[in-house]
Amino acid sequence: MPDGWQWDSTLFQGSAAYYERGRLPYAPGFAETLATALGLDGRGRLLDVGCGPGIVTLPLARFFTEAVGVDPDEDMLAEAERQAMRRGVTNARWAAARAEDLPAGLGRFRVVVFAQSFHWTDRDRVAATVLEMLEPGGAFVHMSDLKDRPAEPAPPPLPAPPYAQIGDLVRRYLGPVRRAGRGTLVNGTPNGEDLVLARAGFENFERHVVPAGEVVDRTADDIVAWAFSRSDSAPHLFGDRMADFERDLRAVLRRTSPGDRFAERLPATEIMTWRKPVVSPAP
């Protein structure tokens, strides 16, 4: 959990409606890469912790008997249910809970995945609980965008979204320290997942990078949705100044691209896996 920060229910309040449109997708083929790496064959159960609107749960569901998405935000779960119905995914279900509420009566799992959500949790406590919830040989999966992106092979055909200027605008409205729910992230969010998982008793670490790199067109509406999908600029943080912020944000976007069109390259996806030890039966 981030230093000096305590979780509260407003972390992503109001963001669910913007998430699907605003966030860039994980690399195409991430689900197939994970299925191959873990030898998934349609059996067993998946648990996606901090599932949001089902961005990872739904593509992975076909590799399991059942997929369970857990998130404390009811609006995120409602959006996940809508997306499951739209895509015809019938073996997914959703539970309102924090990672710290686990095991929450959910049973045993073959795979437990955290997609850019583990850093919000009491990581040592949660890792120890997940170890108990996994089948012997089951996998703990950590997914994120690849942080060290390679150099651009060629400039995109349109301007890139002005993320640095957007960050400056957010700080002008919300203060110099990154917001997160009712609190702030003075030191950012933690990393070092390998040490946390080793302390919990996991083993057999593997790392997989799923390439992407496709250039996608983005509109001003997409970038506004990106801003409101984030914990540090969630809609509720602006209070009665939300409309003012959106007006100023659109002005920044228009100065960068008068046609309100942008381009950016999809980031690669980093998948890290650890295994629960398979305990040999006593002689």
UniProtKB/TrEMBL annotation:
GO biological process: methylation
Gene3D superfamilies in alphabetical order: Vaccinia Virus protein VP39
Residues covered by the Methyltransferase domain: 47-138
InterPro entries with a match to the protein in the record: Diverse_substrate_MTase, Methyltransf_25, SAM-dependent_MTases_sf
Alphabetical list of Pfam families matching this protein: Methyltransf_25
CDD domains noted in UniProt: AdoMet_MTases
Keywords: Methyltransferase, Transferase
GO molecular function: methyltransferase activity
Family matches, as SUPFAM superfamilies: S-adenosyl-L-methionine-dependent methyltransferases (SSF53335)
Protein name: Methyltransferase
Organism: Streptosporangium carneum
